[in-house]
Amino acid sequence: MSRRAVAAAGLVTALLALNGCQSEGAGSEPRARDVAWLASGVVVVSPGPELVELAEQMRPSLVRIRSEARVFKPVGRYLVGLLQGLGSLVNPHPYWEWPYRVISFPLYLVLGPFDLSDGSGSGVFVTESLVLTCAHVVDNAARIRCELTDGRRVDATLVAYDEERDLALLRVEGLLGERPRPVPLRPGMARPGEPVLAMGFPGRDVLTDPLLGVRRLRESDERPNPTVTFGIVSAAAVDLGNPGTRYLETDAALNPGNSGGPLVGLDGRVVGLATMVATGKENEGYAVPSSTVLEVFGEAFGLGADDGPGGERQGEVARDERAAAPDGR
Fold it and tell me: Left if phi > 0, otherwise alpha if psi is -120 to 50, otherwise beta: which for 213?
């Protein structure tokens, strides 16, 4: 065994002995964490059953969101894309993309006004009838559908929308049966090094038939099966150039489809909402802090960490007239 392995073994032995002494002093049996040894001498500490229980507790409160886009994009977005395409045509970067820009710009003039993409993502119940998600998941949506982990599916309406902070609030109506348990939001910012669970519904690669080359099933037809990844808050109050908020950075695995899913602390409260992943890098995802969510929606929509079992105030929630308007986004 190498010197590093011997040192690690001595450290773990000392920690376990100290834990045993403290437990005996408290009048209880010594309790050691599960420890696994790798051939290299690295020690892996098992997270324990608490995380499993927390994930099971959170599971019914999660929602997979499907949105069907309107036929046309908002005029402002089309004009922005037009200006960006013109700029890349005049000054392409890198320069060898210029032939591609010459072809794509006329195509954008014709097809640019149409929105042909449907959105998908995750969400979480924050009251018995309100679901919190990211704005880009339901952007320009003509229809929004929420799918629960028990197989129930119900339409939702947009009641609040903040594009700058990438936040949206949906109202679920007509849901039969037991209401999912709302999850409270933590009012303060999570601290670097704090363990978190990232939960959501990232897309999966479905197996294809080797002869026909078609998918054996459609994931959208299956009952939602959320994923759980574990990590820590790598950094807090991260400035990414958005004046509306400072983000949480986490090394918990995030993938397309996780957007709108919660980052949950070990206290069972939402500390952030997954919003984006750094491209070309590993273990670098970002979330909108729960404190920002409460700042945006708290007063207007009755969300508060200490106002109810799910962080809610009882009573009616006023509708955002901007979100209700057809062109309010």
Answer: left
